[in-house]
Amino acid sequence: MNILGIESSCDETSIAILNDGNVKTNLIASQHFHNKFGGVIPELSSRAHLQQIIPLIKQSLLETKIELEDLDLICATAGPGLIGALLVGLTFGKSLSLSLNKPFVPVNHIEGHIFSGFLMKEKPKYPFLSIVVSGGHTLLLLVKSEFEIIKLGSTIDDALGEAFDKVSKMIGLGYPGGPLIQEAAVKGDEDIFNFPIAKTKGKYDFSFSGLKTSVLRTIQKLSNEREITETEKNNIATSFQKAAVGAIINRVMLVLNEIKVNSISLVGGVAANKKLRDEIKLIGEKFKISVVIPKIEYCGDNAAMIAFRGYQYHKAGKKFNLNSNAYPSLPFETFNEM
Ligand code: KG4
Ligand code: ZN
């Protein structure tokens, strides 16, 4: 079965073709022009998706030597995300489904991330602990089966990726902040500044706003009479990264001490972070549990994960009509109930 995946929820236009569960191509066009604005400008994002989507479809067919008519299933992200951006990919997917007379599956972007570990050779084993860390979400989930996801904890304020982005902006590194903080962190000393790991009411929840404020206060103090130095920036970046990663590790340990799982899967844009990847791998060794972290290409937003999740729904016999809508926020398994 040839499955087309379409992802356009934020600032990546992505088109993938899977043959059953195997990725044939996963093309990603990132909208780097947002960097100069320090964040994603929604209208510009929609327009860029509109320009990118057809060239990417053409390229994906050319690369895989698959004809448009040979596509068997069309899957597109329906939310959560920027509404205008979502509408581009979703409308394109539905129109393609109508013209080819092939089934269409709307896909929840977060569910795409949760199951992205299945794109790897070694797959998560149920029940698994899913750690979803992206620009919009920070979640700890117990995934019992394909359609049984239990939320254990989440952030009560900023998402982890958002905290990386904001701290990066504060120290003048730019956007997106995650990779820039990681790069600066390598050059710094993580023990110079001691940033806090917040306590939360819910034992598996997260809070990153206090950490962000603490970084801000430090910068304000240092830059009272002069510009902060390159060394200070690097030290702040690495100390922040230590605290942010520490918060995730702290909650993951709590979960593993109380709930038995067969795998840990770290997913989402921030799963590209080397320190976080390394520390989660160490936890896996400590608890003797397999760890599945997708390769970098499948950590950030990509259409391969959307095609895979859509394929799971299709195989489970779920049918969708073409009236489905786009949703800026969308709880998991919404489509499971349709
Ligand atoms: O999953 P994603 O591509 O988009 C959303 O669905 O949000 O995640 C984007 C987030 C951004 O906040 C970005 O700064 C962060 O992932 N990110 C990283 C790294 N690479 C991307 N954060 C920390 N370290 C990285 N290496
Ligand atoms: Zn994402």
Could you describe the 3D structure shown?
With 338 residues, the protein is an alpha/beta fold. The protein has two domains: 2-114 and 298-337, ATPase, nucleotide binding domain (Nucleotidyltransferase, domain 5, 2-Layer Sandwich), CATH 3.30.420.40; 123-293, Nucleotidyltransferase, domain 5 (2-Layer Sandwich). Helices cover 42% and strands 19% of the residues. The protein contains ten helices and ten strands. The chain has helices at 42-64, 83-100, 109-114, 160-170, 177-186, 209-222, 230-258, 274-287, 296-299, 303-315, and strands spanning 2-7, 12-19, 22-30, 73-79, 104-108, 128-133, 138-145, 148-154, 263-267, 290-292. The longest helix has 29 residues, at 230-258. It is globular and about 65 Å long. Residues 10, 134-136, 161, 164-165, 176-179, 182, 268-270, 272-273, 300-301 line the site of 5'-O-[(R)-(carboxyoxy)(hydroxy)phosphoryl]adenosine.
Summarize the structure.
The protein has 338 residues and is an alpha/beta fold. It has two domains: 2-114 and 298-337, 2-Layer Sandwich (Nucleotidyltransferase, domain 5); 123-293, Nucleotidyltransferase, domain 5.
Order of helices and strands: EEEHEHEHEEEHHHHEHEHH
Count the DSSP helices: 10
Quaternary organisation: single chain
Distance between the termini: 23 Å
CATH topology-level fold name of the largest domain? Nucleotidyltransferase, domain 5
Shape: globular
